[in-house]
Amino acid sequence: MTQPKRYLITSALPYANGLKHVGHLAGAYIPADIYVRYLRAQKRDVVFVCGSDEHGTAIPIQAAKEGTTPRAIIDKYHEVMKQDFDDLSMSFDIYHRTSEPIHHETAQEFFTYLNDRGELEVKESEQFYDEEAKSFLADRYIKGTCPNCGSDRAFGDQCENCGRTLSPDELINPVSTLSGSKPVKKKTSHWYLPLGKHEEFLREWILREHKDDWRASVVGQCRSWIEGGLQSRAISRDLEWGIRVPHPDGVGKVLYVWFDAPIGYISATKQWSIDNNKDWKPYWYDADTKLVHFVGKDNIVFHAIIFPIMLKLHGNILPANVPANEFLNLEGDKMSTSRNWKLDMRDYINDFVKKENGGLQCVDMLRYYLTQIAPETKDSEFMWKGFQDAVNSELVSIFGNFINRTWVLMHKLCGGKVPKLHEELLDETDKDLIAEIGKAKNKIENLLEEFKFREALFEVIDLSRKGNQYMQKKEPWIVAKQLADNPEVQKSIDNTMHLCLQLSANLAILINPFLPNTAKKMIYMMKVVEKMLDWENAGKIKLLSVGYALRAPELLFRKIEDDEIKYQVEKLKAGLIKMEEPKMEETKSAIVNLKPEIQFDDFSKIDLKVGTIVTAEKVEKADKLLKLSIDLGFETRTIVSGIALHFKPEDIIGKQVVVVANLAPRKMRGIESNGMILMAEDKEGKLHFVNPDGITNNGAPVN
Ligand SMILES: [Zn+2]
User: Fold this and answer.
1) Fewer Cβ in 10 A, N or C end of the chain?
2) 516-526 and 401-414 helices, crossing angle to 10°
3) How far is the CA of 586 from the centre of ligand 1 (A)?
4) pTM of the complete model
5) CB within 8 A of 294, min separation 6: which ones?
6) What is the pLDDT of residues 253-269, one digit of tens each?
7) Average pLDDT in the chain
8) CA–centroid distance, residue 384 to ligand 1 (Å)
C-alpha cells in the first residue's frame, strides 16, 4: 500500500451546551490523539482538527434554562471544553468554533454550491408551529407525555425519563415550551439532501470497497441504513439561532446543525492554514490525503453516509476510515447527563490531576485506562475498581516497576552511567530480549495503522513485562553480591543493565502516542532530546550512548488508594437523579383518544411482516426490556421490546408476531433495535401478541 502524502484527522465536534464526560473522551478523542501522535512521531504530514459545535436548537434552550443568551452559552462551554481537552493532553492542531465567521462563510458556500448544481430538493411539509409565539417549533421545543413510560418529561425528540427516541407526533398532549399553547401544524418549505439518489454510490463505496478495512460495526450500521431505504433529509430549519440560509427564499431559516457541523472540519482546517501560513486545499481536495473521522457510534450515519455524500457532491475527498467506537458505560449503567450518572472530564481533572499527588501522571493514568477498556468492538464499562487495578497492577507494577528498577540498579551497579555492551558475552536470554525489542515495533505499528489501540497498548505493556522477566532471570543484584571483584561478572552486569536501558528508551518511544507525559518524563530521566522519540528509532538497541550519565529515577505513576475509589463511587451514587416511576393511569386515559386521521398513503408507508421469535433474553439493568431475535424469512433481526414485565423469555420463543419491518433502527440500552413488534393492550394493561390467525410463513406481508 502506498503511503498517503498527508493526513487530516478529525474528532467529533462536541456540542457546546454542557460538560463532556469520559465516555466522550474514550469514544472520539483519545483514540484520535493516539493515532495523531503516532503519525507525528513517524514524521508524517498531519493536521488534527476539532472544535465546538455551537448551533442547533439545544443551545437556545440551554440559554433559556440558564437565563442567558445563546452567545453566552457557547462562549462559556467552548472555553470549558477547550480547557478540559488541554488539561487532558489532547494535541489538536486547532480547536475551532462553528460560530466563527469563516465557518459561516464556508457552510454557506457549501450550500450554495450544492443548490446551484441542482443537488438539493425543496419540499413543502407540515411542521409544528406556535401561533402565540409566532414561531415554528423544533422537536425539542415540544413537550408532552411519553407514550412509552407516561412521564411528562418527554420532548418531541426524546423522552428524558425512559430515553426513548420520539417524534412530536407520538407525544400525548403536546404543548409548546415557548408559550405553553398547543402547537398546530403549519406549512413550510425546506431544502433537502436527497440521500436516496446516492444509494448505489454508498453500496459500492462502503459495502464493497470498505467492507474489510472498516470496523464491522460501522459497515453493519451503514448497511442497515442503506437497506432501510435512504430518505431525503432536511438541511434547513425554521430557527433564529444558526447559519442563515444564503438564498432569497431562506428568510427566517438556518442551516440544520447536522449540515453545518461536519463542514466545521473544513473551516477549522482553513483557520489552521491561515494561522500557520499553509495551504488548506490539498487536505480536502487531493486524493493522496488520508482523511479519518473519529466519532462515537451515534455519529456513524453523519460521518459515513451524509457527510460523504456532501463531500462527493462538493468535489472533496472522502474519508478513508470512520473508526467509530461503541459506548462506554459507568459502574454498571449507561452514562447519562439527565440522570447525572457520569464522570465529567472536569471532575476527574479536579479530583486527580489538580490534586497535590496528581498532575500529568494522573492524565496518563486516565488515558491508559480509557484505552485499555476502549469500546472498539462492543460497549465497555468504566469501573472505578477497574481503574485502580489498571493503574496499580499494570502501570505501577509492570511498566513503572521496570523503569524504576532499571534506574535504581543502574545507579547502584554502574555508577549512574550507561554501561558498555560486551557483545561477545551475550547469552540466549540477552539475545531473546533483543529480538523482542526488534519485533515489538512492527507489531505495534501494524495495530495502530488498523486503529486497534487497545491491542497496541497491550503490546507495549507486554514488552515492559518481558523486561521484568528478563531482569528476574538475570538477577544482577544477586550476581553483584556474590562476585563483586570479578571483572567478568561486572561485564555480565553491564550487559544486563545496558539492555534494560535500551529497552527503556524503546518503551519511551512506544508509549509516547498513548501516554505522552510519561514519555516526556522518561526523556528527562535519560537526559536525551525529544527527537529520540521519533518512531524510526524504535526497535534499535543503540539509543543511549555508552558512558552517558543519566538522571536519578523518578516515579512514573502513583498508586490509587482504596479510599479514593470509595469516595468516587459514593459521590457518583449520591449524585444520581432518580427518575419517576411510570404513570400508567395517565397514559391509559390518554390513549383512548384517537390519533389524528391519516391518509391511505401514510399507512402504506408502514411495512408489516410476519416473523417468529427465535431467541429472547432479558436486557441487563432494564426491567422492562427483552432482546429478541426475530426470523423474518429473509433475515433475522434484533428487536428490543418493552414486554419483559408481561412475558418470561423462555415462554415466547417460537411465537409468531407482526413486525414493523421498516422502522428506523433505534438504540435502547445500548442495543440497536431494528423494528418493533405489535402488541395489543387490554384494559388491565396486560399485553398480547398480535399475530396471524393460523401459522403463516415468516416474511409474509401484512396488508
Ligand atoms: Zn418515556
Assistant:
1) N
2) 0
3) 13
4) 0.81
5) 9, 10, 11, 12, 28, 29, 31, 32, 35, 323, 324, 325
6) 999 999 999 999 999 99
7) 92
8) 30
